[in-house]
């Protein structure tokens, strides 16, 4: 904005006055008034003797007759223009107000009509900005400095604030040694963190379990507060939205946050963060004694064989490592540990002392090779969050373990376990015993669950608690079941994800509506002419995956999932149509519905009989990606030249298949020809 102001000052323009004022974090209204008056009058003794209100009247009298442009730099909060005498710019006076701020919330409070976000700069822009901050004298003071300066610019990763701050800091440093030291400091800190996306829900769950969000007794209130904080951080450009539901933090901002958390660098051992640093062994454990929070995620550590002393440790991230062995004793001297993440590792067995971590509130074992949970697991009575998603080798959870975790608020068991056996095991008999134990968890709010029998599903649907908190549902191995009335999904008000897999006899997913008490599971013969006669709305459902259901012929019920984002249909050899129009014409309200209005990803794999996705072309306003593999009879996609406009959609498929596709007209063919990629 400085450059814009300077251009106005040296060129002919349409404004009577060009005024520049730095507001700063603690604005002084009278100082702002003095800066304005310098442009319109004289700051003499008479002016200085006036009160703030008198100055405001004088400024308003002058500016009210002028066409002005006012630049306000570094605005931290809403600035009351009228309070200092600035008339509001409007169509009548044709004046303009331009301001800079670090927070988008300030834009809203100031009533900004147009917002321009300063993104990270490309190399040339970053280099030019840095040179302007440092100055030619310093850059030319030693032959080595220009090359060292380029290295620093690269470390700033295009972040304007980092470039400006670092540039000003280096402006007076003319010895190469000083520049080399600055580079070392930048490199040592920025390498501490991997450039990972963070799922917003996971971040909030950690905050809840660490006690950061303790203003509310109910979990929903805490979650809302968490989302509000994340939103504020995004609007302040301290977090970036990388994709829907995910955020990330710029490396330089991350380093600054760590520095502040360590009391501006005064407390060196409060945080130990070496994520993504390429470690194959633990860092020296002698330095762990004062550590409160530690992140060693995304490394190549295979064994934890030492016994560190960590009396103050609250949070430990060991996820995304090659961990196979955790020796007995590793967690022995961590009495205050509250958050532990071992996900995405090869750990198959937990050391016994982990069950003595009575302060533990958050435990993530997802995507591990854990084979069983011992009875001692029920000692973790303070657990609020337990993640067992995709622990596909987990075969044993003894009875009364789950029901003993009375403080659990979040339990994730999606794609969890496989063929559990044994009488004292809640994973046997299709997980029906597990469902019974879930009824004992009075604080449970969020549930992801795997169900492997019709009776277990029926038990779930008889429980308002389980229906009300289920977010992800995986139905597998419903052998002997021919028909499933999925009207029950309407009662699952929080259901986001539905996977149905390996139901070899399941021939029909229908929506008939059920009377109270009527079973929704039948093993009667499949009626080929069944129709959907009752309109339902599964408006929360966003992701559906149907896999290895060999008798299914269509998925017509999907028309009643208007917010569906992801659809996978895989290894279903009898699927002929995704939407069979003949099945839902009798639902009068459905005739005006347009399926897949929110769909972003459509994956179709190994569907040898598939002929049609939908009989008519669809707008697909959100569609980003289509993948088709081994669907030889699918000769037409429901696309016309106006479908998925402006989305930059990509279609993956075999070359022979794409060449043989039929199109509505040549315009449609030409519109999508650039979208195809070989798969």
Automatic annotation (TrEMBL):
<dbReference type="InterPro" id="IPR003591">
    <property type="entry name" value="Leu-rich_rpt_typical-subtyp"/>
</dbReference>
<keyword id="KW-0067">ATP-binding</keyword>
<dbReference type="InterPro" id="IPR032675">
    <property type="entry name" value="LRR_dom_sf"/>
</dbReference>
<keyword id="KW-0677">Repeat</keyword>
<dbReference type="InterPro" id="IPR055414">
    <property type="entry name" value="LRR_R13L4/SHOC2-like"/>
</dbReference>
<comment type="similarity">
    <text>Belongs to the disease resistance NB-LRR family.</text>
</comment>
<dbReference type="InterPro" id="IPR057135">
    <property type="entry name" value="At4g27190-like_LRR"/>
</dbReference>
<dbReference type="InterPro" id="IPR058922">
    <property type="entry name" value="WHD_DRP"/>
</dbReference>
<protein>
    <recommendedName>
        <fullName>NB-ARC domain-containing protein</fullName>
    </recommendedName>
</protein>
<dbReference type="InterPro" id="IPR050905">
    <property type="entry name" value="Plant_NBS-LRR"/>
</dbReference>
<dbReference type="InterPro" id="IPR042197">
    <property type="entry name" value="Apaf_helical"/>
</dbReference>
<dbReference type="GO" id="GO:0005524">
    <property type="term" value="F:ATP binding"/>
</dbReference>
<keyword id="KW-0433">Leucine-rich repeat</keyword>
<dbReference type="InterPro" id="IPR002182">
    <property type="entry name" value="NB-ARC"/>
</dbReference>
<keyword id="KW-0611">Plant defense</keyword>
<dbReference type="Pfam" id="PF23559">
    <property type="entry name" value="WHD_DRP"/>
</dbReference>
<feature type="domain" description="NB-ARC">
    <location>
        <begin position="1"/>
        <end position="139"/>
    </location>
</feature>
<dbReference type="GO" id="GO:0006952">
    <property type="term" value="P:defense response"/>
</dbReference>
<keyword id="KW-0547">Nucleotide-binding</keyword>
<feature type="domain" description="Disease resistance protein winged helix">
    <location>
        <begin position="195"/>
        <end position="257"/>
    </location>
</feature>
<feature type="domain" description="Disease resistance protein At4g27190-like leucine-rich repeats">
    <location>
        <begin position="534"/>
        <end position="637"/>
    </location>
</feature>
<dbReference type="GO" id="GO:0043531">
    <property type="term" value="F:ADP binding"/>
</dbReference>
<feature type="domain" description="Disease resistance R13L4/SHOC-2-like LRR">
    <location>
        <begin position="297"/>
        <end position="463"/>
    </location>
</feature>
<dbReference type="InterPro" id="IPR027417">
    <property type="entry name" value="P-loop_NTPase"/>
</dbReference>
<dbReference type="Pfam" id="PF00931">
    <property type="entry name" value="NB-ARC"/>
</dbReference>
<dbReference type="Pfam" id="PF23247">
    <property type="entry name" value="LRR_RPS2"/>
</dbReference>
<dbReference type="Pfam" id="PF23598">
    <property type="entry name" value="LRR_14"/>
</dbReference>
